[in-house]
Amino acid sequence: xxxxxxxxxxxxxxxxxxxxxxxxxxxxxxxxxxxxxxxxxxxxxxxxxxxxxxxxxxxxxxxxxxxxxxxxxxxxxxxxxxxxxxxxxxxxxxxxxxxxxxxxxxxxxxxxxxxxxxxxxxxxxxxxxxxxx
Length: 133
What we know:
The chain has helices spanning 16-34, 44-49, 58-66, 70-76, 78-95, 107-132; strands at 2-7, 99-104. It is mostly helical. The protein has one domain. A two-stranded antiparallel ribbon has the order 1-2. α3 runs antiparallel to α4 (70-76) and α4 (70-76) packs across α5 (78-95). The radius of gyration is 17 Å and the shape is globular. The protein starts with a strand and ends with a helix. The mean pLDDT is 81.
């Protein structure tokens, strides 16, 4: 298994619209949570099932991270926080440095990666469910 870095000539591989949506989404989320004086449950999954969703706490985690409270950010949703930071780094290398990152692996290695990520996701969700009670 190896990481492959390729120089990309296209500045915005998916076009500019996903970047604009991402920026406005982050700003809207930050405003919603910053100005939310009264607790309003924004999670549809929680409203429907009564359970915390797998990404529950991610917004609070990102807000804590933006304020420099790393331990607090990790305590809300550890796996999704790390995954989100990795995705932001990936997008930054694509957009700012025009470098595309990919993984070259065999089918068996991809299967191991998929199973590992799925197990981490489920363990993280169990952690969220236990910590929310």
